[in-house]
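Reposting from the mailing list since nobody answered there.

I have sequence plus structure tokens for a pair of proteins and want to know whether others read the tokens the same way I do. The first protein:
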Amino acid sequence: MKKLLVLLPVLAFSINVLFAQDDELPPPSSKPQPTTQPTPQPNAPDQNQVQGFSKPKKLDLSKFIIEPNFNFGIGSGIVNVGVSPYVGYNVWKDLYLGGGITYLYTGYSGIPVYNILGTEVGTATAHTNTYGAGVFAQYNIWRGVFARAKFEMLHSDADNITPNLVTNAQGGYSFPMVHVTIPDLLLGVGYNLLRNKNFFFPIIVSYNVLYPITNTTYSIYPHGLVIQLGFVNVF
């Protein structure tokens, strides 16, 4: 009986401690409270995503000008066929900078050939291939009127028809080849016949500043004054 009286207070104290611990725990049916998250900003970058490079700006095609020059001409014993496309880009207000390439084939026929005594012994054909590149600056003045400066460096591989005296082993006639590099600087004004901002069909009157020091025998500009109508050099 005495042992029972001693155990009762110990048992009561133990039950009281257990109930006190249960009160500190959340009830079984309660849900865990979510952790407070900061409110995302509309334009804030996602920190979980890797930031890439910004997209490059698209090329503005409306700022280009295109001049697809062609050259075709037939004369007495001569034919010219060539292309000279040029493209420019609007860099500031009405100022355009650009460049292009040139290729021109010139064929000659019926060239007289003489012997050492000066007697004509027959005729021969010859040809010239001219190719190169150039740059230009153009300023649009008003309603299709423009001013232009164009510099070209052209190279010619040509039959030297000056001696008119070369005979090959087959009994025909040919000429020695010459290789000439010719610079040209054309300054002039023009008018775009199409009245189109991006596509040019111009008439241009220019002067070749380097004409006095140019080898006109092999130049595609045989005169100091150069007149271009449409895609063809007419003078």
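The second protein, same order (residues first, tokens after):
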Amino acid sequence: MSDVDLVIVGAGAAGLAAGLAARAGGLRVALVEASGRIGGRAFTDRTSLKSGPFDIGCHWMHDASENPFAALALSRGVPHRNSAHPGRMPHWLSIEGRIADAGERDACADYYAESFGAFEAAGARGEDVTGLSVIDATSPYYPLFRGWCSAIYGVAPEKISTGDVAAIWETPENWPVETGYGQLIADSLGDQPITLDCAVHHIDRRAARVRVETSQGVIQADHVIVAVSSTVLAEQAIRFTPALPADVMSALEAVPLGHAERVGIALSHKIDGLGDHRAGHMLTGAGDEIGLMIHEFDRAELTGYLSGDLARDLGKEGRDAVFAACRNALVHVFGSDIEKQITGWTASQWSGDPLIRGAYSHALPGQAHKRPRLAEPVDERLILAGEATHPTRFASAHGAAMSGLRAASQVMARHSHTSVPG
């Protein structure tokens, strides 16, 4: 479509939700996606592991009691785990190849709880400071917490904004989807016309109609929703004429993507003595923490979770490097025989993907107050969407979808106001 009411750039959860809403509202929509698939950071690999589908991206339906995707999963009978996460984390702990005892696990869990509580307390006091400044970094469990904190927020404590921690709205439920959260999102939102392999290079708003220049030609529209990552926009991978306003650029730069990579490892059989659906943390000899979800959904499968600077560096090297780091950590703990049990693997490389460039957004310390600007229209014809633009549900797939609905609503209100009947 070369002449439409609305162009949506990006077919992740935000763009897909915006597309459905705008079409339902009667708008002519062109939804374009630079990659060869839909979903963005929500993607389920259904072929690499014999043990079953594996979420390369988002996996947990966070805030399930208020998450629209959880309602869809329930209404459609999509298999998922909707019981509480068992106990405090970590449920299993390895320190430099040694399996920790129950006392060490409890002490580590106490330190985790105290540190996360300190983040929240500082934010509640109105302090937007680094997370590192409010915790005890001399604890022997700090190296483990550094990695686990990075898994939660995408960055280590020195890059955490306590103001951002205070802003996020969460409920206790976190439900993993057995058949894949990415697949649920694709099935729920993907049944609409989408042009794939269509990269947008330039958005020109100088004329009466917006000119969107893509790798497959030019589209003219009255309005544009841009639903790509904050880092992609901050690094100016898409050119805007006129340029994005200074306050918008400042807000984008204030909420870059952190880094996290997921590794799925299928085994010939489950590892004895570890139990099912347990969260383990491994501290490697190099001082890196690697998370481990053990035998989820009763599968002979392990999920490795690399985060922060480690994920950034390995993600840029590629999937093989991400997998190798996880495999080497497992060998250090379980011995070389574990390699013989591996029947397949898959891994993400979000940090090395030029269309995304990271995992999920986080505010820089002292900058959390800038995020809400991204939920406001850039101008009368340009609106941003995506998880980074949601003031309270950022870093989540449902927050991204909600931002898409908000953006579509803003466009429809403006379109209705400016349209001439007849």
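Reply #1 (J.P.):
I read it the same way you do. The domain at 3-38+190-256+361-418 is CATH 3.50.50.60 (FAD/NAD(P)-binding domain).
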